Amino acid sequence: MTGSDYYIPAGVLAIALVVKSPSFWRGWNSPMSKSIFVILAASAGGFVFGAPPTIERVNRLTGVPNVSALIVYCILSCLSCGSIVLLIHWRGGPEEILRRHTRMWIAATAVMIATFCVLFYLSSVPIEQQRDFDTFYANTPYVREMIVLYLTSHIAMSLVVAAKCWRWARELRDLQAAWTHWGLLILVAAFSIGLSFALLKFLAVGARWAGTDRWDSLSTDVAPPLAGLGAGMTTIGFLVPVVGPRLGSMWGSWRAYRAMEPLWRALEPFAGPGKPTWVRFTSSPEIRAMARSTDISDRLLNLAPHLDSSHREAAERYASSQGCEPEAALIFAEAATIHAALAAAEAAGRASSGLAALAAETGATIDTRVSGTNGLARLSIQFSKIRRSDLPVGGAARSEGN
Question: What pLDDT digit, counting tens, does each position of 105-164 carry?
């Protein structure tokens, strides 16, 4: 792997860290925010300090050969600790138990990092190794123990976390937890890859113990890409349940916004003298959908004098007789009533400017039982079907019922 193979994913993780920094600042008292920060920072740091150009510079600046290996070991230990702590708080439970488990893992990580430092200090590693530190010094006293401790802890952590994520993912069956479910499955894959990384390293080190260097490529060529892939997937797995619901909400609002367009445009002549609700270019899909639903409601108010309740009741009975569910029959009836009201208003030659006054004079109100962005989106879709269809209303009713 070249320097760019390390620095590109490190840059992506750094961008994610910068983007998330405002939320980290606001929720710094939350253990989950701190854990996500540690995961992103440690993942980026692992890539940066594991890159051969960085290894060379760190060793030269400090004057300590191979000290970069110790730094990478410590960073990856923090990544493992952050992952476990986040999983603990993600799963939830009694506050006292969460705090106790968190302190236990942090203390264990601190002890392990201190042990790494002591073993490295006692060792003799004078020859700089940018890519094959583990195998080159596999038989060196103290470094040998440091490598074994690191790989053993990495294997144990990967097994524990992957097993916990798998069990939890199997418990989550409802739609509301879909993002968490997929995040957990990604984490299972990520920590399985991390397990493969540690096992390959162990095989290469074990081969050195057996007196052969034929398996060194497992540690120098195969394992590093797996480490990068595993770290990236770990970050994605923890971010999916956090970012996913927001993206799902934005996508749903955007779909509703687009779906409401046919009804919104059909009611445009009944907008009255006021301008449509103004939204900024940078407004979120939720705000856009809300503004459009407000415009539709206002325009239906001007159309109210032409909305015929008897027509709606007849349309609802017809849709029910065609096998539509109650909600689908209601949507069809409302859409058919609006379609008929628009035709009646056009035939009467009503000016949109006079409709509001007429509604006020007659005491008319918005004669529709459908509201909200999702409800109006469905109403608009059904309205569009009725308007496009040259068939009797039964065809549209059946389409909505299916």
Answer: 999 999 999 999 999 999 988 888 877 888 999 899 999 999 999 999 889 888 988 888
Residue 37, pLDDT score: 85
Say how many C-beta atoms besides its own lie within 10 A of residue 399's C-beta: 17
CA–CA distance, 277 with 283 (Å, rounded to integer): 12
Q: Positive or negative CA dihedral for 211, 76, 45, 221?
A: positive
Quote the tokens at residue 176. 């509301």
CB atoms within 10 A of CB 52: 15
8 Å CB contact between 262 and 227: no
Q: Is 139 helix (H, G, I), strand (E, B) or coil?
A: coil
DSSP-assigned letter for residue 188: H
Question: What secondary structure letter does DSSP report for 269?
Answer: G
8 A C-beta contact, residue 198 and residue 155: yes
Query: The domain 3-248 is classified under which CATH number: 3.40.390, 1.20.1070, 1.10.287, 2.20.110?
Result: 1.20.1070
Q: Residues 52-74: what's their mean pLDDT? A: 89
Contact 364, 305 (CB under 8 A): yes
Residue 326 CA to residue 343 CA, distance in Å, equals 26
- Asked if 380 and 263 touch (Cβ cutoff 8 Å), the reply is yes
Flag whether pLDDT at 362 surpasses 50.
no
The b/e string for 159-181 (b: 16+ C-beta within 10 A; e otherwise) is: eebbebbeebbeebeeeebebbb
Give CA angle at 22 (21, 25), nearest 5°: 85
Report how far residue 331's alpha carbon sits from residue 343's, in angstroms, rounded to the nearest whole number: 19
Residue limits of CATH 1.20.1070 in the chain: 3-248
pLDDT, the chain, mean? 82
pTM for this model (two decimals): 0.69
How far is residue 202's CA from residue 198's CA, in Å, rounded to a whole number? Answer: 6
Each residue's pLDDT tens digit, 292-349: 998 888 888 888 888 888 888 888 888 888 888 888 888 998 888 888 888 888 777 6
